[in-house]
């Protein structure tokens, strides 16, 4: 038994035609989305023929009234089982408007204004979780990011123990080779092949080419990945795809 998965930071509603074309071409059984606008959930449910699980993280100030952004899980043609949304900063009852700060000459989201959540579900006997870790200036590993990563790891380990395995995917905003990434990789297997050096799509990202491998497929030893790959031309981050099996 195996499960085909795609994980994408879709940058809100900016690239919906590209994302839809990728989904229709690749036809993943499970879709894991970051920076998903709540208003676009019906769009993806129509594409996949399933019901989206959604966990809000922030209200985006430039998107008008329908501006709630978060992470989502959606299985093709079926219901997700045992869905849970575990917040490791903030809470769903206190979703804030995203604030922005300027650090080292760059405008970036203030991580304290964004809730962080691990959204998990069971699909075809596999336990899958998606998250979006807080952003830092120039990919640096900050104490707050490492603190969040530690909380995320504890939640993921508990899920893995209960389910007998876990694939943790998403945008970790933590470049491979730096302290936050290494902290996660101490506890879970990095499933993205080493020849990939960046998951930023320079043709679509506002900052252009950045050599940061920040999107991840982390898994426990009882799971194994086949055909793990990145695809450009989908969003400002590459789409991550794999086929998941039990070891």
Automatic annotation (TrEMBL):
Keywords: Endonuclease, Exonuclease, Hydrolase, Nuclease. InterPro entries: Endo/exonu/phosph_ase_sf, Endo/exonuclease/phosphatase. Residues 9-198 form the Endonuclease/exonuclease/phosphatase domain. Signal peptide: none annotated. SUPFAM superfamilies: DNase I-like. GO terms for molecular function: endonuclease activity; exonuclease activity. Transmembrane segments: none annotated. This is Endonuclease/Exonuclease/phosphatase family protein. It comes from Phytopseudomonas argentinensis.
């Amino acid at each position: 038994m195996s499960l085909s998965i795609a994980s994408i930071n879709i940058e809100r509603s900016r690239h919906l035609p590209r994302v839809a074309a990728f989904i229709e071409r690749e036809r993943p059984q499970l879709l894991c989305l970051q920076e998903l606008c709540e208003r676009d959930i019906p769009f993806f449910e129509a594409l996949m023929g399933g019901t989206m699980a959604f966990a809000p993280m922030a209200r985006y100030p430039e998107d008008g009234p329908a501006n709630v952004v978060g992470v989502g899980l959606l299985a093709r043609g079926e219901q997700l089982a045992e869905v849970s949304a575990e917040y490791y900063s903030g809470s769903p009852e206190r979703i804030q408007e995203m604030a922005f700060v300027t650090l080292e000459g760059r405008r970036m989201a203030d991580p304290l204004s964004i809730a962080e959540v691990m959204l998990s579900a069971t699909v075809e006997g596999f336990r899958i979780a998606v998250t979006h870790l807080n952003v830092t200036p120039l990919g640096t590993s900050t104490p707050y990011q490492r603190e969040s990563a530690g909380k995320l790891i504890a939640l993921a380990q508990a899920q893995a123990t209960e389910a007998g395995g876990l694939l943790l995917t998403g945008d970790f905003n933590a470049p491979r080779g730096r302290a936050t990434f290494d902290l996660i990789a101490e506890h879970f297997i990095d499933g993205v092949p080493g020849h990939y050096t960046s998951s930023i799509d320079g043709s679509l990202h506002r900052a252009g080419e950045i050599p940061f491998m920040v999107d991840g497929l982390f898994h426990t030893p009882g799971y194994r990945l086949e055909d793990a790959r990145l695809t450009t031309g989908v969003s400002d981050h590459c789409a991550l795809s794999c086929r998941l099996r039990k070891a």
